[in-house]
Design brief:
The structure holds three protein chains of three kinds.
Chain A lengths: L1 H12 L15 E3 L6 H10 L4 H15 L23 E3 L13 H9 L6 H5 L7 E7 L2 E5 L2 H6 L3 E4 H7 L1 H7 L10 H9 L4 E5 L8 E7 L10 E6 L4 E9 L6 E4 L2 E6 L4 E8 L11 E12 L5 E8 L4 E4 L2 E4 L5 E10 L4 E10 L5 E10 L4 E10 L7 E10 L5 E10 L5 E10 L2 H9 L4 H12 L1 H4 L4 H15 L5
Parallel strand pairs in A: 3-7, 6-8, 7-9, 8-11, 9-12, 10-13, 11-13, 12-14, 13-15, 13-16, 14-17, 15-18, 16-18, 17-19, 18-20, 19-21, 20-22, 21-23
Antiparallel strand pairs in A: 1-2, 3-4, 5-6
Chain B lengths: L6 H9 L6 H13 L14 H4 L12 H11 L5 E6 L2 E2 L13 E6 L11 H9 L3 E6 L9 E6 L7 E2 L2 E6 L4 E9 L5 E10 L4 E10 L3 E10 L4 E9 L4 E9 L5 E10 L4 E10 L5 E10 L4 E10 L7 E10 L5 E10 L5 E9 L3 H9 L4 H14 L8 H17 L5
Parallel strand pairs in B: 1-5, 4-7, 5-8, 6-9, 7-9, 8-10, 9-11, 10-12, 11-13, 12-14, 13-15, 14-16, 15-17, 16-18, 17-19, 18-20
Antiparallel strand pairs in B: 1-2, 3-4
Helix pairs in contact in B: 2-5, 6-7, 7-8
Chain C lengths: L1 E10 L2 E11 L4 E5 L6 H9 L4 E10 L2 E2 L5 H6 L2 E4 L6 E5 H15 L7 H14 L4 H5 L1 E2 L5 H15 L3 E5 L7 H14 L5 E6 L3 H5 L4 E6 L2 E6 L2 H9 L2 H8 L1
Parallel strand pairs in C: 3-10, 3-11, 6-9, 9-10
Antiparallel strand pairs in C: 1-2, 1-4, 4-5, 7-8, 11-12
Helix pairs in contact in C: 4-6, 6-7
The chains are: A alpha/beta, B alpha/beta, C alpha/beta.
Chain lengths: 489, 415, 250
Amino acid sequence: MAAVQQTVDTVKTLDVDAYKYGFTTEIESEKAPKGLNEEIVRFISARKKEPEWLTQWRLDAFKRWRTMEEPRWARVDYPKIDYQDLYYYSAPKGTEGPRTLADVDPELLRTYEKLGIPLSEQEILAGVQERRVAVDAVFDSVSVVTTFKEELGKAGVIFCPISEAVQSHPELVRKYLGSVVPVTDNYFATLNSAVFSDGSFVYVPPGVRCPMELSTYFRINEQNTGQFERTLIIADAGSYVSYLEGCTAPKRDENQLHAAVVELVALDDAEIKYSTVQNWYPGDSEGRGGIYNFVTKRGDCRGARSKISWTQVETGSAITWKYPSCILRGESSRGEFYSIAISNGRQQVDSGTKMLHLGKNTSSRIISKGISAGRSQNTYRGQVFAHRKAENARNFTNCDSLLIGDQCGAHTVPYIEAKNSSALFEHEATTSKISDDQLFYCMQRGLEPEEATALIVNGFVRDVLQQLPMEFAVEAQKLIAISLEGSVG
Amino acid sequence: MTGLSSKAEEEFSGLLPADASASAKLFFEQFQRAGLPGRRVESWHYSDLRTRLRVVPPVAHAPDEAARGVARHKLGASERLRLVTIDGFFAPELSDDFSGVAGIEISSVGEAEFFGGAADPMLDLNAAFSRGGFLLEIGVGARVEPVIEIVALAGAETDRSRFGRNLIRLGAGARAAILETRDEGFAGFGDSALFIELGEDSQLDYACRCRETAGVEVQTLNVMLAARAKLRAVSLLAQTPFLRRQFFVSLGGEGAELQLSGAAILGRNDHADLTMVVHHNAPACVSRETFKYVLGDHANGVFQGKIIVPPHAQKTDGKMLCRGLLLSDDAAMSAKPELEIFADDVACGHGAAVTKLDAQQLFYLETRGVPHIEAEKILIDAFAADVFDTLASEGLRDVLRQDLSDLLGEKEPAS
Amino acid sequence: MIEIENLHVAVAGKKILDGLTLKVEDGQVAAIMGPNGSGKSTLSYVVAGRADYEVLDGSIRLDGVDILEKSPAERAAMGLFLVFQYPLEIPGVATMTFLKAALNAQRKARGEAELPTIEFMKQVRAAAAKLNISQDMLKRPVNVGFSGGEKKRMEILQMALLEPRFSILDEMDSGLDIDALKTCAEGVNALRGDGRSFLVITHYQRLLNFIPPDVVHVMSRGKIVKSGGPELALALEASGYAEYAEGAAA
């Protein structure tokens, strides 16, 4: 037991504050007044010079939101949020108008540099970075810069802030916005519909394989500011795109709200691979501060043979409430969900997925690995559903939980619903701890307890790590070590 | 909380006698606060009792001579020692004389006398209305060899509301095998409660066959196991218009073991919901939950299982398995196997699978000359029957095997 | 090399080692033989630093340094290696990853640079070839799905790679057929030399035919009751342990 005990002790002494991205950027911001009312909604819409239909869309959402109740079914516990005590719009000054790297405040560039996000195309082209990744950098409520737009443009790929897409491609935005996550979907999605600030927009035309990885990097900086980004990705027939989002926030003593909506649409034969490395500030070891990550992510496999794959590495946030889902509407479409959720300190995670099989011959796969340490609570919640008409629907689910220490909890709540006799659903779940024997064996070979733990944990999550694009897999692996380090040991 | 009270809730209120005892009234108030559970209540999501129970049939009275006559006729002769209830009331005059059997004590109870168990509105409703059940006690160290059978029958009128409430208690080190046969007709409403208390080192084999259940029926089992006690329980469900059978189990002493299994063979518009909450309240307890569903026609099968392991229940070993076999495109299966774990030194897991009959296996059997329908029966029997193997009592296993084979014999061709 | 003095150890309140004293010289191969339950495996675990073993009294010195307060990893970095009687399976962790992590951790602890990947691969391949370990086995997770013999060969591969100065072989022959035993023994013998010592723990003389010891100790009831040359092992093979069990009881 000593090895585990040692690990547990380290967890106790640890400030979760191994968090490396907790710095703040001193930059002047323009904010809307605190609180939420019709005026604020209009203010945001006006700030973005939105067309009338979108303003109305937001106002309808706001009206609806006021009649709704915050969901309470998840296994998370937090004090009541005062929605009138938040800022709903904050933008670094001088981010108006056309944005190129040259226009960006150097302080902001330094921020992203510190975070390890490559924004300089020259450097990337010069081969400093091994692979090219186009980045949309979102700082608080607005996108500050999007790289490689020109080159992507040549391939016909549209990659820009959604606020810009509203101006430049209104027909696409109007057609698809809210078509996967309706305005009325749930409390947080409806709130987002009313006040969403910025986010990324991607359109990949028919038959195009996007020439590089696309990535959005979210950063919450301002105090008392909610972040409500909205991402919309459309992969037209036969296209392919791989997209990655990363998130960090400064350390602050109060909780910050992040209520994003992500909508994916895959038409016939299209494929979208969506990866997330979520590392929002998790709060300190006593549970002070941290991000409330209440996110609605859904992909619609609208076309035949389309495919949507979600991969997530969740290490941050005080509270995580997210269920990236797939609506398998198109015949022979496929949905995948690969997840690593690590909780430590006082973090609470309630995350999973929904695979809704509506079309014939649809298939889905769920691999979820939950790791609880410290005093955290980690819940997998997932639904697999086959409609009466979903002939030959197939699902395989595997969710495993690992407990480190005796103060944490690991929970599994699957919902398996089959209404078609040709459906084939398989589900397995296990909960265990790292065995003392395994730890001792590694330590006898010279590994320190924390290294041994990280090694075993990495083995535990390997199936999922393999799904990440190469360079992010390496990053994620480090992140796992960091979030368990000082935390695990 | 279900907000507005439903018509059925108001009817219950009218049915509660004005002279009901204070405790009955208290239980009823508790029921009223929660209301009749429906789909908006997470644990009742798949069994919408609120919608199914629109009209509450009159509450059954204690059996009279006419009721006893009907029951006696249905009962026939048997070699087993039997305890009979009519409309939920213990009927000593129809039951066998247990006075000669060493170690067994049977007594009548009036209004609900034993409490505890889970916080559940249907259990509260039962406590409010229950008027007469039995208490079956197996004394300390007693080994009862013959199978004891509990037979639940209906009286002359089947369209009644019944609220049976019985207790089985095994003293330390006692052993027994109990068969429960529920045969109350397909009409009316049932809300029964069975309490099972197992003393230290005792062992109980318990099998329940639900042959004819009420139009709408809820059965609640409250089970408590002391240290090293063992319960092997199997339920065989068939022809259930709307049944929710729910188990609340507390493994309360170190080293207790639970084998909870069941098979549901459903067709027509049958709805069967097997729900269990297994609380590992002591270290080093073992639990196995294994349930099989065979679903034809428009049948709807529901499995909800939850294993709870609090921080002090180290060395818990819990495994849950649920498998559904869909024989028709109109049948449906919903499964929710949950784990809720707060202790780190545990080995817990669950598996769930929903499939159809294996075409290759069918084909293989057919190439050996077995007709298609027979081949189906063989495969279904093989699929379902292994849940009986958890029972130690040969006698109980044989009864269930025979029942299953009878059920499959009656079965219409699946396709 | 290693000096164990008056070692008293209890497990879960029960005394297992009862004043054991043992010295293994540089370059020496020492065998410990003894009946089941004499405390042989406990000794190997205590020297390697496994928790749950309560050292009541005595000392263990490796190259003159007391190691009782050191972690298993620190002891490993000092050159201590244990061949487990039952090597552990570690699902999901590729054998190569594991080997590299272990090797570099030890090098780091000794202030040496990490081994370049190419050099590392070369070394692993060379060692694997000698032990009949296929590339396929190296690709699999650590010990997962390996037969008893494969697991033992993997232990010897690790030994070859980590080049420990002092190795304890805990019942290395258990679960091995004669061919596998030969292969493993050859692996061990190849490492014999001036700088390295071995403590071979076994119940049977058989293993010592393949790894001839310089000295043989007999252990009973938690202490060394007799020491001698290789002939002692042969005598034991003939007469059995009965004499020692009773002798200790007296």
